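JOB MANIFEST
job_type = single_chain_structure
chain_count = 1
residues = 386
[input]
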Amino acid sequence: MQVLHFGAGNIGRGFIGKLLSDAGLEVTFADVNQSVVEALATRHKYPVNVVGEQTAIEIVTGVDAISSLSDDVIQKITEVDFITTAVGPQILTRIASSIANGLVARMKCNNTQPLNIIACENMVRGTSLFKGYILAELPQQYHDWVEQHVGFIDSAVDRIVPPAVSKSGDILEVTVETFAEWIVDKTQFKGHPPKIRGMELTDNLMAFVERKLFTLNTGHAITAYLGHYYGINTIRDAILDKKIRLIVQGAMEESGQVLIKRYNFDDTKHQAYIEKIITRFENPYLLDDTDRVGRQPIRKLGVADRLIKPLLGTFEYQTPHENLLIGIAAALHYRNSEDEQAIELAKMIDEHGVAKTLSLLSTIDMHHPIIKKVADIYTSMQNKSF
């Protein structure tokens, strides 16, 4: 099977591209970084440092690469069995037109073999959103053909891939943690769902999506925002701080109560999952910056994302949320002159105040008592009395 994978960055090479190549699929990367593309197309392999309790250097082989800005992408789409992405949620709109053009070319050359598209992004139902972008780029006359022959598969992805600089100067070398999880919705495939080692099929994707979002993503973000607030540079050092650790674990347990009630998760198993994630944050080989993990705070304060969505769940099931409120206040306190959303967030707070800003971003009614609670925590943090 052939795969066209958009995104040859650290996550693309270290997670999805590696998993697919390890499973025996022919992987072609598409990216805008010409230096990376040329290196992959010349060498057809790259090293991955897998770090954790045991560390190893693994070589991914048999890969190729093309420029995502070239017509080669369109030709490739006429041939492959899968398209995957690891480009970041905000880039999906930019590559939608290329995929739309490729689908038109695929139809014109009468390739009616099933094509399945999986957006492997850190978001809820990312492929369904991506489908909308692609259809918006397609004339209406092609929609029926796409609905018949192209599957859009939602997935949940989980692997920490920090930005690590190669000691040898190798542009393709990447570092990843040992843990990896890729769960896909088997009900959305065109044709028979494939058996790919490392890809887990499920007919209950949202349980896994929310488990990861409410636990790993929630905990990671709150660790980053509290670490930033206390002037701690790395996720590892932040989670080793006793005060931060108690809040992060408390927030994950609060969001966990939502999951347990919503999906009937086993309490003991979910607590073990929380503790496993905390040990992942402690990994001494993953020197991940709190600034990097905290970037794009406006997106992370959105109604469907890692802070507000579990909070809304606590309203639904009438469960505790005090630590989640602290995490949300810390996110509102995030300042980073190199992050556009952090700059915009600060402007919104200056213009509207913290309560209205939170209401606008989260869609929680301005008069809901939770808004005042977060605003009070924010003020105490601002006054250094937290």
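[summary]
The radius of gyration is 21 Å.
Residues 205-229 form the longest helix (25 residues).
exit_status = 0
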